[in-house]
Amino acid sequence: MAPDAAYEPADILGGLYGPGIIGLKGAFDRGFVQHLREDIDALFDEALRIPGGAVPRGPSRHYVEIHPERLRGFVELVTHPWIVAVCEAVLGPDWRLVEIGFDVPGPGAMDQPWHRDFPSPAATRIGRRLDSLAFNLTTVDVTEAMGPFEIAPGTQWDAGLDFDGGMFPPRAHWPRYEARAERKLPRMGDVSARSALTIHRGTANRSTQSRPVLVLGMDAPDAGNAERHDLQVTRGYAATLPPGVLAHMTCRVVDRLEPIVQLHQIEGLRMGLP
Q1: Does residue 192 have a pLDDT over 70?
Q2: For 105-153, where are the alpha helices, taking DSSP H only?
Q3: Which of 27, 60, 89, 236 to pair with 206, CA 20 to 30 A apart?
Q4: Buried b vs exposed e over 122-137: b needs ≥16 C-beta within 10 Å?
């Protein structure tokens, strides 16, 4: 997989090392996203029936990790020229997919506490290098009522030494994040890339609709976030993947898919704000 020369590394690096989030509007057509939504809805219903299948991330808010081969369009996602270009610019030519899943903030989801997805690693805190990225693809046209994603630009560089678990900043810090906060209102087909260390939160969903969003987690070779996940593909599916795709996946190749044991529980999000 080669990056597209149309996407300038300087622009990519400037966005992710500066604000900590970038995006591409209309990366996928609406028909493609509609198929993703159908698969996500079916997988979510299935996960809710399996103990531990859908991880609570607050009231009426869940996260589900999935097997790549159960999602139509997986190959189109991980080979999209912009996604490849972003990964190569930030994570290097040996970048790895370590996670695929989706968030579902349903009606009644509440404001989350400000947080980052995991503690800042030494590579970032000391070395000032981003070694992981999260890509998000919305499956709906997001409105203000649907609980938009909110992010505090530039905060991926906060050391977080006084954060609870390295992830949750003290309330005394919140006014700074609120002053910097940007709400994102993407439309179907838009894709974003961000540092998972940039302080963010989901906001209250006051609508009658869910807001499912697909998540891809990417690592530099030395990042180690695969330890929080259990990416799997069957041997038969692996044989169908285009050249180079499997080489960019940190995964187990298995005879039969096994249930995913969610290793990345975020305890501070389970109950919502105190």
Answers
A1: yes
A2: 122-125
A3: 27
A4: ebbbeeebbbbbbbbb
- What the chain holds in terms of domains, given with CATH numbers, is 9-264 (2.60.120.620)
In the block, which residue shows the tokens 């960019």?
248
Q: Are strands 55-56 and 61-65 parallel, antiparallel or unpaired?
A: antiparallel
Digit-coded pLDDT (tens) for 70-105: 999 999 999 999 999 999 999 999 999 999 999 999
Q: Any idea how long the chain is? A: 274
What is the distance between the alpha carbons of residues 159 and 102, in angstroms, rounded to a whole number? Answer: 27
